[in-house]
Amino acid sequence: MTHAQLLFNPGIKTKAVKKGDEYVINGGKMWTTNGTQADWMCLLANTSDGPPHRNKSLICLPMNLPGVHVARKINKIGMWSSDTAEVFFDDVHVPCKNIIGQEGMGFTYQMLQFQEERLWAVANIVTTMDNIIQETIDYTRQRKIFKQPVLYHQAVHFRLAELQTEVELLRSLLYRASAMYIKGNDVTKLASMAKLKGGRLARELSDSCLQYWGGMGYTSEVPVSRFYRDSRLMSIGAGADEVMLGIICKYMDTLPKK
Ligand SMILES: Cc1cc2nc3c(=O)[nH]c(=O)nc-3n(C[C@H](O)[C@H](O)[C@H](O)COP(=O)(O)OP(=O)(O)OC[C@H]3O[C@@H](n4cnc5c(N)ncnc54)[C@H](O)[C@@H]3O)c2cc1C
């Protein structure tokens, strides 16, 4: 069963109002991964008017209910193997039993889930980074300019060595944070650092590697160009780099007091 993914927007306006043993949902969701094909979505909606950290709940929402409108499939620069939809809810009736956990705990659940989502994002990208470096090595070894492989330029093999070193450092951080998480620790700080570093390294690595493929790198025929497009999302999705920096600063107690 396919499900649409939920992330967190603190400015959520979608409301789920309890009427009898149902919630009546009105609002919308701009970014919904798998939204055009999902059977259900995990929706974060306001279930009361209380403070923003206590007024949200997670609701399992079947996508075939009357009033669920998939308005459009969003045209993106990358991540074409996964659709992203804008969805609206117009008086959608959902049984109250579809709530996930306790009412009003949605924000807390979402914050806990973000640790896993951000670690997953990093785990998902480190092997691809290895592969892109290896494919760049293979390509530049056989691509000769004036009888010399592109790889033999020190600027190229040193840069690839630097990038591989960065990938190994990121992998170590990922393993450390994952091991701590499995033992039951709060790893929000380390997971945010890993996600930040993963996004930035993906941008550096995809740009450098694509460069060494020359014109071939600018075609849609090689994986490096797809990685260049797809991996750009890493610094934006699941919380932008700046949001990660804010979380890290919070844990370092360096945010200005209001
Ligand atoms: C392909 C794709 C799929 C997605 N799928 C889902 C999904 O399934 N479910 C879901 O819920 N969401 C999804 N999202 C939404 C995604 O999580 C958001 O796009 C992301 O969190 C950034 O939020 P925003 O787009 O509202 O950017 P904004 O909040 O408008 O931020 C814009 C920019 O402002 C800057 N900025 C933001 N906050 C700060 C700050 N505190 N300090 C300094 N600068 C700041 C950053 O540079 C940021 O990129 C998806 C997005 C994309 C592009």
Automatic annotation (TrEMBL):
Catalysed reaction, written as an equation: oxidized [electron-transfer flavoprotein] + hexadecanoyl-CoA + H(+) = (2E)-hexadecenoyl-CoA + reduced [electron-transfer flavoprotein]; tetradecanoyl-CoA + oxidized [electron-transfer flavoprotein] + H(+) = (2E)-tetradecenoyl-CoA + reduced [electron-transfer flavoprotein]; dodecanoyl-CoA + oxidized [electron-transfer flavoprotein] + H(+) = (2E)-dodecenoyl-CoA + reduced [electron-transfer flavoprotein]; decanoyl-CoA + oxidized [electron-transfer flavoprotein] + H(+) = (2E)-decenoyl-CoA + reduced [electron-transfer flavoprotein]
- Pathway this chain belongs to: Lipid metabolism; mitochondrial fatty acid beta-oxidation
Gene Ontology MF term list: acyl-CoA dehydrogenase activity; flavin adenine dinucleotide binding
Q: Which GO terms describe its biological process?
A: fatty acid beta-oxidation using acyl-CoA dehydrogenase
The cofactor named in the record is: FAD
* GO cellular component, as recorded: cytoplasm
* Keywords, sorted A to Z: FAD, Fatty acid metabolism, Flavoprotein, Lipid metabolism, Oxidoreductase, Transit peptide
Q: Where is the Acyl-CoA oxidase/dehydrogenase middle domain?
A: 12-92
Q: Start and end of every Acyl-CoA dehydrogenase/oxidase C-terminal domain?
A: 104-250
The text of the family note is: Belongs to the acyl-CoA dehydrogenase family.
Q: What is the name listed in the Swiss-Prot or TrEMBL entry for this protein?
A: Acyl-CoA dehydrogenase 6
